[in-house]
């Protein structure tokens, strides 16, 4: 119901879109301010002239436990555009492939020992270490915050083969940081969330992917909701400061000097863009300091359009031992169930790409093709029709040792001013679910405001 307030959402990424959609659903008058010329933030499609099937700014996977993200997808009408396959593949040098079960009872077998060459004794040790890992995730030892994920795996005795085949890769995927740097506490937190959700829903949390590009998944439906509910979107509107006086939100000041009147604000920008916006908030020094310490981590994604198939066995393939060059290969033909039309699209991901981010487009493509040829025998015959390298130096906030306790709450000392974004405090690491959950909490806090 319209309460006469003007609600302003700063940032048109997932957290901002979800906040705006949910406020509009609640009947509020909403304006979205986005500094770019388009919505989507870090989840968007990339167009390539003359090539069918738009790729994304980076392949995004989802988990069954992403309940707030699914609430958003339901609001924008695309909840059925996500699929959870029964398995992915682990791909080894020379082209060897083993199954990575992501659903059902067989996923427990994967969890307890995914390495195809592990003997019975090693599998038993992996199972014992996994149980220990889960127990410590649920009841973290006092010093876990001081450990890297790698140190934690070592301490609980996770066998090397289990680490190579599953755990190091999983930890890299969750924290977007190599295990030598990634925080054990962050990884434990996500594991604990997954276990709790699994127990609640009586099914293991599994991994899936969108069957459409990210513009179709997240943006088109939001734009429809905005049209239907009269949400105004202002593009190229970079917010500079949220104006607060006497403990009340008054306006949002833009870079060009315009003041947008506001009675309530969701500030949904990444930690790397927060500085200045909260200057009127008494606790801004602590929030800025935390935002700086959280820092950023790079991801490099390469969308390779080839003249023939690569010979994948599953839509998602983890490249074992390819860390630093390629972590995963995603087969968009399988994912989007689309005819190939003479061009095959493969999306390659490298998380924690501290070295790769500094290389040129051509160097990255050459290095990745060399690696693909070692893992996919068919790659030798393939020609690159088009290659698109998407470097994201600020892909997510960094979840290295010492960062787990830094994330600020959505509520601030000013009731009409709330924070959202993947970096604010949630049950997840830097993920789309974290962005959506933060939006749910931020909107929840605003809907509790007393009548205007
Ligand atoms: C390559 C890559 C792969 C990823 N893979 C996965 C994955 O597999 N699974 C997963 O769950 N997550 C993944 N993530 C993380 C996920 O994309 C992010 O956590 C999520 O999209 C963050 O959403 P957000 O709304 O918090 O931030 P953003 O999407 O960054 O949105 C913030 C918005 O605010 C705008 N903005 C900034 N400053 C201002 C200002 N002053 N005024 C107005 N607007 C402003 C920005 O332009 C942007 O549109 C990945 C991220 C990347 C980059």
Automatic annotation (TrEMBL):
It comes from the Bacteria. InterPro entries: Amino_oxidase, FAD/NAD-bd_sf, SQase_HpnE, Zeta_carotene_desat/Oxidored. It is an enzyme of class 1 (oxidoreductase). The keyword Lyase does not apply. Its EC number is 1.17.8.1. The keyword ATP-binding does not apply. Keywords: Oxidoreductase. One of its GO terms (molecular function) is oxidoreductase activity. It holds the Pfam family Amino_oxidase. Residues 14-446 form the Amine oxidase domain. PANTHER family: BLR3003 PROTEIN, PROTOPORPHYRINOGEN OXIDASE. This is Hydroxysqualene dehydroxylase. It comes from Nocardia aurantia.
């Amino acid at each position: 119901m319209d309460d006469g307030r003007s609600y302003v959402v700063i940032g048109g990424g997932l957290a901002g879109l979800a906040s705006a959609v949910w406020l509009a659903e609640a009947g509020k008058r909403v304006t979205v301010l986005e500094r770019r010329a388009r919505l989507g933030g870090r989840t968007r499609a990339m167009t390539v002239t003359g090539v069918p099937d738009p790729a994304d700014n980076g392949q995004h996977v989802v988990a069954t436990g992403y309940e707030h993200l699914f609430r958003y997808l339901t609001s924008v009408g695309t909840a059925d555009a996500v699929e959870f396959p029964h398995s992915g593949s682990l791909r080894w040098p020379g082209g060897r492939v083993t199954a990575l079960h992501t659903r059902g009872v067989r996923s427990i077998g994967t969890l307890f020992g995914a390495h195809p060459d592990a003997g019975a004794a090693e599998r038993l040790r992996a199972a014992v270490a996994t149980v220990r890992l889960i127990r410590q995730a649920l009841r973290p030892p006092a010093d876990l915050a001081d450990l890297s994920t790698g140190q934690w795996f070592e301490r609980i005795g996770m066998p090397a083969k289990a680490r190579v085949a599953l755990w190091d890769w999983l930890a890299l995927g969750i924290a977007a940081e190599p295990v030598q740097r990634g925080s054990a506490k962050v990884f434990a937190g996500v594991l604990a969330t997954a276990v709790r959700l699994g127990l609640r829903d009586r099914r293991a949390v599994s991994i899936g992917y969108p069957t459409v590009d990210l513009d179709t998944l997240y943006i088109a439906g939001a734009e429809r909701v905005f049209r239907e509910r009269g949400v105004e979107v202002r593009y190229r509107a970079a917010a500079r400061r949220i104006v607060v006086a006497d403990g009340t939100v008054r306006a949002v000041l833009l870079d060009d000097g315009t003041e947008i009147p506001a009675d309530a604000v969701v500030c949904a920008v990444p930690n790397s863009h927060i500085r200045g916006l909260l200057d009127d908030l008494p606790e801004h020094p602590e929030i800025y300091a935390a935002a700086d310490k959280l820092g950023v981590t790079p991801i490099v994604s390469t969308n390779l359009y080839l003249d023939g198939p690569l010979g994948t066995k599953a839509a998602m393939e983890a490249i074992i031992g390819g860390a630093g060059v390629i972590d995963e290969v995603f087969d968009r033909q399988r994912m989007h169930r689309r005819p190939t039309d003479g061009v095959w699209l493969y999306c390659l991901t490298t998380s924690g790409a501290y070295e790769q981010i500094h290389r040129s487009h051509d160097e990255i493509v050459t290095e990745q093709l060399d690696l693909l040829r070692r893992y996919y025998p068919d790659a030798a015959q393939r020609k690159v029709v088009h290659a698109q390298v998407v470097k994201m130096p600020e892909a997510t906030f960094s979840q290295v040792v010492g960062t787990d306790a830094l994330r600020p709450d959505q509520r601030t000392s000013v009731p009409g001013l709330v924070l959202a974004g993947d970096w604010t405090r949630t049950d997840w690491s830097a993920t789309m679910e974290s962005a959506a959950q933060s939006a749910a909490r931020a909107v929840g806090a605003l809907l509790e405001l007393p009548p205007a």
